[in-house]
Amino acid sequence: MGLEAGVVKPIKSFSTWFWDYNNDGWLDIFVGSYGYFKGEITEWVIADYLGILPKEADAHYPRLYQNNQDGTFTDVTLKAKLDKIMFPMGANFGDLDNDGYLDFYLGTGEPNFRALMPNRSQF
């Protein structure tokens, strides 16, 4: 079912949220990643920041899928600039700045950081 819908990554995920990120009335999908990494997780985050991650790391990025309104989804992770190693263990969403678009908050276990992602409607 996921393959037919175009939802195939990350390979290992920890949590998933359904929400309408683009205000079109259709639920989109954010899939958090929590893959297996050799070494310390912090090393992977630093390598990602420096742009020296191995190619296979792409399979472990979280994914944002936009609903195509026909039972399929398009991966808009790059467009949304979410192609980073992160390990969300919890999240929530709401219109934090009252601009009419849902923003989302990601909480992680390791490395210890928090991210508030304001939705700017167009990436």
SSE string, helix = H, strand = E?
A: HEEHEEEEE
In percent terms, what proportion of residues is strand?
25-35%
Low-pLDDT residue intervals, each spanning 5 or more residues: none
Tell me the radius of gyration: 14 Å
Mean pLDDT: 76
How many strand segments? Answer: 7
Q: How many separate structural domains?
A: 1
Keywords: Signal
Pfam families: FG-GAP_3
InterPro entries: FG-GAP (IPR013517), Integrin_alpha_N (IPR028994)
Protein name: ASPIC/UnbV domain-containing protein
Report on the structure:
The mean pLDDT is 76. The strands form two sheets. This protein has a four-stranded antiparallel beta sheet, with no helix packed on it. Strands 5-6-7 form a three-stranded antiparallel beta sheet, with no helix packed on it. It has one domain. It has helices spanning 2-5, 41-50; strands spanning 13-19, 28-33, 63-67, 73-75, 88-94, 103-108, 114-117. The protein contains two helices and seven strands; from the N terminus they run αββαβββββ. The radius of gyration is 14 Å and the shape is globular. Helix content is 11%, strand content 31%. The longest helix has 10 residues, at 41-50. Strand 1 and strand 2 form a beta hairpin. It is mainly beta.
